[in-house]
Amino acid sequence: MHVWGKFLVSFVIVCSCQALQDVIPKKCDIPATAPKKIEEVINTCQDEIKIVILSEALEALNINEEKSRAKRSVFSPDEKRIAGCLLQCVYRKLEAVNEHGFPIEEGLVTLYTEGVTQKEYVLATRQAVNTCLTNVQKTYSVTPHSIQESKVCEVAYDVFECVSDEVAKYCGQTP
């Protein structure tokens, strides 16, 4: 009987505590809109950072433009990553990548030749895109359906640089 008595007392205490919990009001509710506000602030901050980076890049270009109109040949790994991520964003928004983030031929050719009527340039661009997509697949050991998310910025940068160089070669201009 003694064991049953302890059990009964424990049961009553648990039930009483549960009843009190239901009666005591919560101190606060987490608003459902909090994550949306944070997301808006993060997006705003990202936009501000982009503006700062682009402003610095334009400033540097204006300084360097006076010295030389030649293409800059050396970028730091961070600069390449930032440029690649911006390119990846552009590619994505203009539907020049597949669902995995890998650049696609038609999307890139359309992007690079928009408004161009010269058939030779369009042909050069198509050939360059094909060559460059093959090169990045070999370089990064990826396929259009197996690219790692961590590589999409690097691939975007390398494709852009490669296409620019290949089109320049085809059109008779040294990159």
Provide a concise account of the structure shown.
The chain has helices at residues 2-23, 34-67, 77-93, 105-113, 119-140, 152-170. It has 175 residues and is an all-alpha fold.
- Average pLDDT works out at 74
Rg for CA atoms: 29 Å
Helicity, as a percent range: over 70%
Order of helices and strands: HHHHHH
Number of strands: 0
Profile the largest sheet: none
| Number of helices in the DSSP assignment | 6
Distance between the termini: 95 Å
Helix-and-strand structural type: mainly alpha
Regions with pLDDT < 50 over 5+ consecutive residues?
1-17, 26-35
Shape label: globular
**DSSP strand content:** under 5%
InterPro entries: Odorant-binding_protein, PBP/GOBP, PBP_GOBP_sf
GO cellular component, one term: extracellular region
Signal peptide: 1-19
Keywords: Secreted, Signal
